[in-house]
Write a structure and sequence with these properties.
The structure holds 2 protein chains of 2 kinds.
Chain A lengths: L2 E8 L2 E9 L4 H8 L18 E4 L2 E4 L12 E3 L12 H8 L9 H14 L5 H7 L11 H15 L3
Parallel strand pairs in A: 1-5
Antiparallel strand pairs in A: 1-2, 3-4, 3-5
Chain B lengths: L13 H5 L15 E7 L5 E7 L1 H5 L3 E6 L7 E2 L6 E2 L5 E2 L5 E7 L2 H8 L3 E6 L6 H5 L27 E9 L2 H6 L3 E9 L11 E6 L5 E5 L4 H12 L6 E5 L15 H8 L7 E4 L2 H7 L5 E10 L5 E13 L5 H9 L10 E10 L13 H19 L3 H6 L20 H12 L16 E12 L6 E7 L5 E4 L9 H13 L6 E3 L18 H28 L6 E4 L2 E4 L7 E2 H8 L6 E7 L17 E12 L6 E11 L6 H21 L28 E7 L16 H4 L1 H13 L10 H13 L1
Parallel strand pairs in B: 1-14, 12-13, 16-17, 20-21, 27-28
Antiparallel strand pairs in B: 1-7, 2-6, 2-8, 3-7, 4-5, 9-17, 10-15, 11-12, 11-14, 15-16, 18-26, 19-20, 19-25, 22-23, 23-24, 26-27
Helix pairs in contact in B: 10-18, 13-14, 14-15
Classes of the chains: A alpha+beta, B alpha+beta.
């Protein structure tokens, strides 16, 4: 089986992985090789969005990206959202608004929401719903997830 | 002392989950772990002629290979012991595991299973329950009456019927004779999947003493331990089950799923742990589904709408193995007449094997399929009699002290208020003034419905509370965090009783070695049962603290007050001692204190599993506003009002989360979702692009509210509610569609093409 080496930054830290199978997906690299288990894999087919990470700032289903395609790039996972013990405003809002139930979709949902706000700091409810439409959730009915993103938008727009 | 109970405390599991630190089943990693993969049957019904393992055994990296022949006499199943860990002799559904391989890595395991050669001899297929009931239908389990089973299961020899459950009250024929009108209808429902985002998984290991260790997202570690020990003919203590966080369960994460495959491999893996994670296709094909049903409902009424008699005959398509199917049949059939006063009742459920995916517990435990029939028919009756649908229900719903359709007096009944609240929220009275056609030409309709669900009875829960010498508390229970917020609820109860802040609490991981017995995290039973056990354990701690304080103060225990984290002598509150001070004074070298609580309801009829009438009933109502496009038949739910009777809620936000999430889940199962199986039993759409669940774009505005009908035996009056939140959504939507465009859909899901066809047929008439 063909192998390559992959150099990339994950959550700001430099990683070099040698002997990466060209068939390995980015989610497998993140979980199995980098040991960052916060990124989940719900379907492996790009349908559910639980494996969403930011690749050079863009949201991707990391099950549909080959690990070798991430060579030289910047990856952000849920573990990179918070700094030390300080939660990202989106994480804080998800906790406070009761947006979390089983929690399996939450890492991907947070990153999809971050990608939206990075691009559009004042999204409408419809824009929020469209931005997370690729991230399935079976528990919440999305009610409080949408509210949490709206709440984070407000807190992030406040001058610090 | 109850300051925390009833408060919208922030969920204690949220931080773990937003930070990515929460460990779910697929996240478990152990040293020396192998990866297991199953080879699955491509046929729904076939005899296994031969299995050739020569090639797979030669593949480098393969460490264990196993088939059903390695496990003779091993049969699992909570209600009926009928399911081998790997197929033995024949396969009964497409996707049934036939053989399995453990290898050093996942890629090798995947390659290895492809090297296994199986020769099958195909058998005729019973692809749905009605076909399986026909004379001459292929027998799926020959000798089903010989399987070991619990007492409520009543199999019919030489058939595909694994159980028949019947309930009668009054005289059904007299009831129909005394009725002014009799209505007979048939309603059907489809197969749907729980579709949790976390796939099923398990890690299993056999230690050097032969003890079996299992880690995974199982909702009920003690029940799984018993199921495994029984199947493998082992003592309970020789099996240890540890449950992780569960990434969505809804009933589908109990019983034997990935566990049997991981264990079968671990038994041959030389003490190395084996991990099995299902693909999404495997999750759809080979875990659990909701029963497809055929419900025939016959109801007699007086001209004023008073229900006189109701007969409901249900055929439950339970798939290839019993799992919890027969207990769904026995329990749900008892709820089939709805939350109404009916003097004459006859309910009969048949649980039927088919060559399909295994059906069992699914949020609502059969009641959504029954409410679909019952509360759709309530509107048919109301329309014929010229009674408003809300009024029709209010004339008949159960109230405190009434006798329910299975002959039991009911207590804690909030259904009337649920109906009134959802009617208010959706604007039921004002709907006459609402425009009936939108600018885009869509027809507007309103619908209302209500439902009832029971809980398995009797069942037990035990809890331990460890009070450490610094006054912090560890809550030790086997209740599993499946997303419902159980840790928060139990902490509110424990801290409420002990007067401790929530910040001082930690939680054990559910583990059969260390957390006491709990029947299951199912049946909406945990707040009630484990809530009581934790409450008793906290009261036990308080009693011990009072005794300790009494000995230190040199007074009688009755003179001691324990509250707010302190103990003092009555009327001398200024001389109080904190819990850590009490422990320090008596046990200066260090000690902890253990509170114990055990709850097992007093049973009226039988003490065995499922033998008693429901300990409590849950009630809810839903009202919806829909828009139907007559050109395409497309239905859109614009607004949905939902109210559930929670008893006294321990945490109102947790309850609202259930109501909101349940409503959208049920919109999916009503309008969108269907696992399609062809006439050869082959599942056509086992993936999320062909089996569509609601996205954020499909979810309407949800108007959620609580109704409080406190239960005298629940902890602080609380009761369960997490399943009833889906039950009456399907009929509410069906009723609204009828209101909008005048057609009555009788089989779920309500797809656009069915509405379009019904509209065309109604025009042709």
């Amino acid at each position: 089986m063909k192998e390559k080496s992959v150099t990339l930054r994950i959550n700001g830290e430099a990683h070099v992985f040698n002997h990466v199978s060209v068939r390995k997906t980015l989610v497998q690299l993140i979980r199995d090789d980098a040991g960052l288990m916060g990124t989940k894999e719900g379907c492996g087919e790009g349908d559910c969005g639980t494996c969403t990470v930011l690749l050079n700032g863009q949201p991707v289903n990391s099950c549909l990206v080959l690990a070798t395609e991430a060579d030289g790039k910047e990856v952000l996972t849920v573990e990179g959202l918070s700094r030390e013990w300080e939660l990202h405003p989106l994480q804080q809002a998800f906790v406070e608004e009761g947006a979390v139930q089983c929690g399996f979709c939450i890492p991907g949902m947070l990153l999809a929401a971050k990608a939206l706000i990075d691009e559009n700091p004042t999204p409408t409810e419809a824009e929020i719903r469209a931005a997370i439409a690729g991230n399935l959730c079976r528990c919440t009915g999305y009610v409080r997830i949408v509210q949490a993103i709206q709440s984070a938008v407000v807190s992030m727009s406040r001058p610090r | 002392m109850e300051a925390l109970v009833g408060k919208p405390v922030t969920r204690v599991d949220a931080l773990d989950k937003v930070s990515g630190a929460a460990v779910f089943g697929p996240d478990v990693k152990l040293v020396g772990m192998l990866y297991g993969k199953a080879l699955r049957s491509p046929y729904a019904h076939a005899r296994i002629v031969s299995i050739n393992l020569d090639a797979v055994r030669k593949l480098p990296g393969v460490r264990a290979v196993v088939t059903g022949a390695d496990m003779p006499g091993v049969l699992g199943g909570e209600a009926v012991k009928d399911m081998p860990f790997l197929a033995q002799g024949k396969v009964r559904y497409m996707g049934e595991p036939v053989a399995a391989v453990a290898a050093e890595d996942e890629a090798t395991a995947l390659k290895a299973v492809e090297l296994i050669e199986v020769v099958y001899d195909e058998l005729p297929v019973a692809a749905d329950a009605l076909a399986a009931l026909e004379k001459g239908a292929p027998l799926i389990h020959e000798g089903l009456e010989n399987y070991a089973r619990i007492s409520v299961i009543k199999p019919v020899p030489k058939s595909n019927i694994i159980s028949v459950n019947e309930y009668t009250k009054g005289d059904i024929e007299q009831g129909f004779r005394e009725s002014d009108e009799v209505f007979e209808d048939e309603f059907r429902s489809q197969t749907v999947h729980h579709a949790p985002l976390e796939p099923h998984s398990a890690v299993a290991q056999v230690d050097v003493s032969g003890r079996i260790l299992v880690w995974g997202p199982n909702d009920s570690p003690h029940r799984l331990r018993k199921d495994l020990a029984d199947a493998l003919h082992m003592r309970l203590d020789r099996v240890r089950v540890v449950s992780t966080y569960v990434g969505g369960g809804f009933g589908g994460k109990g019983g034997l799923k990935a566990e049997p495959i991981a264990i079968a491999l671990a038994l041959k893996a030389n003490h190395r742990p084996v991990k099995v994670v299902f693909t999404r296709e495997e999750v759809f094909q080979a875990t659990l589904v909701r029963h497809a049903t055929v419900v025939r409902i016959k109801t007699g009424v007086k001209r004023d709408g008073t229900l006189m008699a109701r007969e409901v005959k249900i055929v439950w398509d339970t798939g290839a193995y019993a799992e919890k199917g027969p207990t769904v049949c026995s329990q749900a059939t008892a709820a089939a007449a709805g939350p109404y006063r009916v003097p004459h009742v006859h309910l009969i459920g048949q649980c039927v094997y088919t060559n399909k995916a295994v059906a069992g517990a699914y949020r609502g435990y059969g009641t959504p399929q029954l409410a679909w029939a019952c509360d759709s028919q309530m509107d048919i009756i109301a329309k014929k009699l010229g009674i408003d649908p809300l009024e029709m229900r209010l004339r008949n719903v159960l109230r405190e002290g009434d006798v329910n359709p299975v002959g039991h007096p009911v207590h804690s009944v909030g259904v009337e208020d649920c109906l009134k609240q959802v009617a208010q929220a959706i604007g039921w009275q004002e709907r006459q003034h609402h425009p009936r056609v939108t600018e885009k030409g869509r027809h507007v309709g309103f619908g209302i419905a209500c439902g009832a669900k029971n809980t398995k009875t009797p069942s037990g829960s035990e809890a331990a509370l460890y009070l450490s010498q610094d006054g912090s508390l560890t809550i030790v229970t086997a209740s599993v965090e499946v997303g419902q917020g159980v840790r928060t609820i139990l902490a509110q109860i424990a801290c409420g009783v002990l007067g401790l802040p929530m910040e001082n609490v930690s939680f054990s991981q559910p583990d059969t070695d260390s957390t006491p017995f709990d029947a299951s995290t199912t049946s909406s039973r945990t707040t009630f049962h484990m809530g009581n056990a934790v409450k008793f354990a906290a009261e036990d701690l308080k009693k011990q603290l009072a005794q300790l304080a009494a000995s230190l103060f040199g007074c009688d225990v009755n003179q001691v007050v324990v509250d707010g984290g302190k103990a003092w002598l009555a009327e001398q509150a200024e001389r109080s001692l904190t819990y850590p001070e009490l422990l320090q004074k008596q046990y200066g070298a260090g000690a902890s204190m253990t509170g114990r609580g055990f709850y097992y309801p007093k049973s009226e009829q039988g003490k065995a599993f499922h033998e008693s009438p429901s300990l409590f009933w849950m009630y809810a109502a839903h009202a919806v506003q829909v828009e139907v496009d007559p050109k395409t038949g497309r239905v859109e739910v614009k607004r949905l009002a939902a109210a559930a009777d929670t008893g006294r809620p321990i945490n109102p936000v947790n309850c609202l989360q259930q109501i909101e999430g349940g409503a959208v889940h049920a919109i999916g199962t009503t309008l969108m979702e269907e696992l399609i199986v062809d006439n050869q039993g082959r599942m056509v759409n086992p993936n999320f692009h062909d089996y569509r669940i609601p996205t954020a774009m499909d979810a309407p505005e949800i108007l959620a509210s609580l109704v409080e009908a406190p239960h005298r035996e629940g902890p602080f009056g609380a009761k369960g509610m997490a399943e009833i939140v889906t039950t009456s959504v399907p009929p509410a939507i069906g009723n609204a569609i009828e209101d909008a465009v005048g057609v009555r859909i009788r089989d779920l899901p309500i797809r656009s093409d069915k509405v379009w066809r019904a509209l065309r047929e109604s025009k042709e008439k």
